[in-house]
Structures are given as C-alpha cells and as structure tokens.
C-alpha cells in the first residue's frame, strides 16, 4: 500500500516515517480528491494547516518548582469563517494529532454548514498530575500565549478530552483580562452562568442518536429492541446510551477504560450512570451479567456499535471480528482507513465522526450566536434546531453517497470539501 508520505509533499516539521493521525487525514483527502472536479486544483489548501502556533507553557508548581509544558493551537482552514475547535489536555498530545483534529473540524463544520473554519488546541500534560490551582495557572498561561490568534471573530476554542466548563470559564476570564473587555463569545462550552448554552452538554450524544435513527431507518433496523454496544461512557457515550435506551433500544454492552459490562437483556442505563458517578468506572456494576476484558468487546454481536472513546480503536486487527450493521462514530478518528475498508466490504454502514459527532459544535455555534445577541433560547428550541440540522446533514450526505456510490465518509468529505474550496475559490488568493 502507498503510504501518505510517498504521495504528498510534506512540510519539514513532520516526521515522514511517523505521520500519526495527520497521515490518516491525508489518506481521507486522497479518497475525496477525484470527486472534486475543477475545485481539485485547490486541494493542496486542505493538506496543510493555515497556521500553527507552538507555545511553551511554564507554571509554578505548588511545591515551588517550575514545570514547562508543550502547547499548540492549529488553525487548519478559515475560508468559511473563524476557526472553531476544542482544547485537549492529554499526555499523548502531538502536533500531528492536533493538526488532524483541526482538519476534521474544518470538514465537520462544513458538513453541517455552520459558518466556521477548523481549529484545535492542546497541551501535552496529564491533568491528573496537577492540583486545581496548577491546572488553573496552566490554563491561564496557555490562554495568554494563544491570545494572539484567538478571539470571538478569529478562533473560538471549546472543551475536548480532559477539559470542561471550568477550564472554559478560566479561558474566558483570562482573555477578558488581557483584552480589557468581557467577550463571552471567545470560547464555547461555558457554564450556563457565564453565557453557556442549555443543551450543550448533551449535544454530541444527542446528535449521535439523531443520525443513528436516520441510518437505522435506511438500513431497516428498528430502534425499538435494537442491540447497541458502546465504547466510552463519558460525555458522548453516556448521553448516547441514555437516548438509545429511552427510545427502546437494548444497550447490551458498555466499555470504559477499565473493562466491559454486558447484559443481553439490556443494561439499566440510569443505574449504570449512578454506579459510574459513585465508583468512577463501569467495573463492578451489579446490573451486569458478565464482565469482559477490553478486547472481547469487539466480538459482541450488535445492530449498532458506537465507538465514543479515543482515536484509532477499530483497526485491521479487530475489524474482521466485528459483527454489527451500523457504526456511529461518536469519537474523533476511531476507525483506521484499513478497518474502514474491511468493514465496508462486510456491508457495515459507517456514519463517520465528521457527521455523527457534529452535534457538539452545532450547539457551540448556537451558544456563540446567543452570546453575540445576549438573547438566550429555551432548551426545547435548541434541541429542535439541533435535530433539524443533523437530520438535514444526514440526508444530504446520504444523497451524495447514493449518487456517487461512495461510503458515507467519502460523501461527507465531498460535500464539506466542496463547500470549503468553493469559498476559497470565490474569495481568491491574497494578495
Ligand atoms: N464532548 C464533546 O462534545 C465531543 C464532541 C465531538 C467529539 N468528541 C469526541 O468523543 C470522544 C469522547 O469524548 P468525551 O467528551 O465523551 O470524553 P470523556 O472524557 O467524557 O469520556 C471518555 C470515555 O472513554 C473511556 N475510555 C478512555 N480510554 C478508554 C480506553 N482505552 N478503552 C475504552 N474506553 C476508554 C473513558 O472511561 C470514558 O468513559 C473523543 O474522541 C472526543 O474527541 C467529543
């Protein structure tokens, strides 16, 4: 197989022997390029981020020593609007990962047609090793370092893995101190008391459910009684589990970082949430019939499988064992291109991350709009608008996939990249 670095002119800051998630993204762009017609002359625009900022983030530790951390903000493309994308605090964050996540934001925002480009940020840190005070100092210093390029009309960060409402509140406050005015729209995913939006916490899981319902209808799978298996029981997986269970599906297996709980009759999701809140993980849940190890999860037969944890979980190694009809990618980048091909050959319908988990950024967009107008909507209004946008996006992607005879991933990329490159073409190149 040709590797991404053999086909692409790579910038000097990447290691051609280990492209990481950025290499996965480049392969996805290769698959869409033949479908872009005359716009393909602009495709190189998508293969390099517009702007990369690497920052040193020093903090004074509680014991008086000084620690330095590596931070990033990558703005992949801003042809259609300001940058938008989360901030991840994780010990394994790399430039390649932040670049890929920023590019997937470009595609995602265009796929649901919200007026944003794509961006992402991160700090290479394990936040569990920091006290609350240290975490606050880290967040504020990082915000100050990237304040050169963020802003309500430039680039709007949001939470991602290991960042939350509190981190967003500190980011907003730091930006307000630096700028000398209160700009609530500089970040989304804020607490409700600071201009956050109702429905934001549940938005990604809700969006996964809405597109899942559409995909199930296309596949002739009834939600009532459907067997659902979920990897990840956090913000995305936990909410999706509740919504599928409320709609009458049987959530037969849930896996988190400690293991897998199974109940063939359907796990009691409300009780599982209570258990996780108290015990910190699904392990030991009294309502489970069986506890399996991490790898056995992939062999469980289901109608709908939802990866909602980390990148690169479904691989060429476990894809042959997966027996399901529909995969809803709640996580970003959970399926490698090799696994994608294996599953497509097995007639599994994969609803890609750039469509399936776009509910979060859609309600972030609502939050930003509400902040600008200082006029806040009801939760019912937010959920209705979210459902409408996700259903429309699914229908458009489905139509492209049928017309061009391509997977839903390539169809989403066709729709999104066409929108991005049309904007680029009509704007023209500066100067
Ligand atoms: N939160 C959002 O709004 C949002 C939006 C779009 C995409 N995503 C993506 O969804 C994914 C999950 O995000 P989240 O916000 O739910 O995170 P989270 O931290 O709330 O939950 C993560 C879950 O994954 C589990 N997990 C971690 N490592 C695991 C492993 N090795 N094996 C099995 N399970 C493991 C954890 O136990 C936890 O249950 C990430 O890829 C994120 O980028 C999140």
Strand line-up of the largest beta sheet: 9-8-7-6-10-11-12
Mean pLDDT: 96
CATH topology of the largest domain, what is it called?
Answer: Rossmann fold
Helical region count?
Answer: 13
Helix content: 40-55%
What is the radius of gyration computed over CA atoms, rounded to a whole number of angstroms? 21 Å
**Total beta strand runs:** 12
State which percent range the strand residues make up: 15-25%
CATH class of the largest domain: Alpha Beta
Secondary-structure map:
Blueprint: H1 4-7, H2 21-32, E1 51-60, E2 66-77, E3 83-90, H3 95-111, E4 118-124, H4 132-146, E5 155-159, H5 165-179, H6 200-219, E6 227-231, H7 235-246, E7 250-256, E8 259-262, H8 269-279, E9 290-292, E10 304-307, E11 326-328, H9 337-345, E12 349-351, H10 353-356, H11 359-373, H12 379-404, H13 408-427
Parallel strand pairs: 3-4, 3-5, 6-7, 6-10, 10-11, 11-12
Antiparallel strand pairs: 1-2, 2-4, 7-8, 8-9
Helix pairs in contact: 2-3, 2-13, 3-13, 4-5, 6-7, 6-11, 6-12, 11-12, 12-13
Bound molecules: nicotinamide-adenine-dinucleotide (NAD).
Nicotinamide-adenine-dinucleotide (NAD) binds at residues 160-161, 204, 231-237, 255-257, 294, 308-310, 330-332, 357, 360.
